[in-house]
Amino acid sequence: MTRFKAYVVWRGRKPGVYRTWDDCWEQVRSFRGAQYKGYPDWATADQAFLAKTNDLVPSAPAPRPAKTRTTAHVAQSYAVDGACSGNPGVMEYRGVHTETGAEIFHRGPYPLGTNNIAEFLAIVSGLQWCAERGCDWPIYSDSQIALGWVQKRQCRTNLPLEHNPLGAEIQAAERWLTTHTYPNPLWKWDTRNWGQIPADFGRK
């Protein structure tokens, strides 16, 4: 019986964590400069992947800096927002079409989160939603903190996540940011001039 229960691929066809050697081998076979390693359990492998990936992929194009458009918002765009009943508290987030308000995704509620985590995951979910559809429209957020976290590819929350289901989702979001690039501009929503962001949950 193999002593490894998980395999990390840092450099290969598709970097990530794999449960079987066969899946790992498919990513590194004949791949020049492949880097991979076996681990005794999934948690250790996942931590190793996140720790080393930041060093291996520093040359990826930096995300576009967040901007505030002060004239008028772009109609062909998406807006994302998060909400939290208490901080920390019950959390959810969503994305909408900026012009029509049509909802494109909605996640939650989660039993324990924060506003900043919700805003961060909302932006990443918006980027993933666009990537799956080949869409390069801008994405608006009204959270400068969350936009900064996305630029740094890290959710810098102080909320303990050891036994929180959100921990795995945050790790997956950080991993996606580390291993993907995207064409979508990320812009700060100008609440003062435009009113509440269209994805707002209306709880203010």
UniProtKB/TrEMBL annotation:
It is an enzyme of class 3 (hydrolase). One of its GO terms (cellular component) is cytoplasm. Mg(2+) 1 binds at residues 81, 200. GO terms for molecular function: metal ion binding; nucleic acid binding; RNA-DNA hybrid ribonuclease activity. Mg(2+) 2 binds at residues 119, 142. Its EC number is 3.1.26.4. It catalyses: Endonucleolytic cleavage to 5'-phosphomonoester. The gene is rnhA. Endonuclease that specifically degrades the RNA of RNA-DNA hybrids. It is found in: Cytoplasm. It comes from Gloeomargarita lithophora Alchichica-D10. Its cofactor is Mn(2+); Mg(2+). Transmembrane segments: none annotated. SUPFAM superfamilies: L9 N-domain-like, Ribonuclease H-like. Residues 72-204 form the RNase H type-1 domain. The keyword Nuclease applies. Binds 2 metal ions per subunit. Manganese or magnesium. This is Ribonuclease H. Belongs to the RNase H family. Keywords: Cytoplasm, Endonuclease, Hydrolase, Magnesium, Manganese, Metal-binding, Nuclease. It comes from the Bacteria.
